[in-house]
Amino acid sequence: MSSKLGRRKFLLYGSTTLGASLLLKACAEPPKEAASPKASGSSPSASPSSASTGGGNTIKVGILHSLSGTMSISEKSVVDAELLAIEEINAAGGVLGKKIEPITEDGASNWDTFREKATKLIDQDKVVTVFGCWTSASRKNVLPVFESKKHMLWYPVQYEGQECSQNIFYTGAAPNQQIEPAVDWLLKQKGKEFFLIGSDYVFPRTANTIIKAQLEAKGGKTVGEDYIKLGDTEVTPVITKIKAALPKGGVIFNTLNGDTNVAFFKQMQGAGLGPDKYPVMSVSIAEEEVKAIGPEYLKGHFAAWNYFQTVDTPANKKFVEAFKKKYGAERVTNDPMEAAYIMVYLWKQAVEKAKTADDLEKVRAAAVGQTFDAPEGKVTLQANHHLSKVVRIGEITPDGLFKVVYSTDKAVDPIPWNQYVAETKGYACDWSDPKKGGKYKV
Known about the structure:
By secondary structure, the protein is α/β, with parallel strands linked by helices. It has helices spanning 7-13, 72-91, 111-123, 136-148, 179-189, 202-218, 236-245, 260-270, 287-293, 295-298, 314-327, 335-354, 360-367, and strands at residues 58-65, 99-106, 130-132, 153-155, 168-170, 193-199, 221-228, 251-255, 280-282, 302-305, 371-374, 377-381, 387-388, 392-396, 402-407, 427-430, 437-441.
């Protein structure tokens, strides 16, 4: 699906049109200006056997992301990556001898709409799986739909963890594959005093709960913690607090979302708080957002992901080349896009192993253990429905890309239930064993 608002036009608009469209992460709640749609009538639950492979020659899948509203700037690119994967698979012969037929729905950056569209895709369109969501708010709003209907969602964005559903496959990072290793690296390389700054929503607060517990366990120190309302660009008071708490410099861990990041990085630079003494580690800023904010404000700072466009693997060179060929040489790839791209292939492999797309229980079982030579490196789908992934930290360069400054030697196994947080320490997830399931004490 082509985007009505092209990347080139978006960059020309610059920060004046960003609004709250940048980086609204796994914490977001519905934007107040987004009116909730009228509730649709209830429809019967769809059992796995009611999913349809279409009119004989196609297998229907759902794509559910925001093509309009606050989140569209991030989610349109994810749709592009999913459609590229589907196009490639179809060109290579499809799945089980049938073409994949994507049915795309717009979540419209409204979490009630996500729930309604998920219901439509399952009950009316009879899709066999859905690739979708970005924010945890959207994911948590559709989760009851997928669980009550025993259906299947593939979710491509790193998130706050503390969840492990039988009906979701998570192809982004768990906190131990992004947040925690970023803290460890900072403690060794940049200092032990941390100021935590985030948006006032679930993801930043959960992330900072983990970070504070981790710092306490490893000899670090939280010298300050502050939250800014989503969409608020008045960051001067926070800059003042950072200077007071870290007069000689220190680490800033950034879980800000939305256009607050634009004001934050510009005012950090304006106040003379550069990356030499005040390095910022972000977990919500990727290549596309860097270019939109302006590399001149971000160069020298850091971000933690599992994938960067600059990752040097044969699979990534092929992925970047194919993406740019289809969508334009000026486009960039990023972590959520790569996670979205590979989840389509992982689903394909599971279907082929199960020898069916309709029997979702068989597909779910077949998905566990699947490996894929991904652009980020080899990934493996574990019994907790999360991927083992290489962890990377990148330094932002003047061209808006990332120089990888740290990478794990091998893929890190995912831990959905956080081991630094007292309430979930000692818990794990294993959907290959019915006696263990989504949360059990190790």
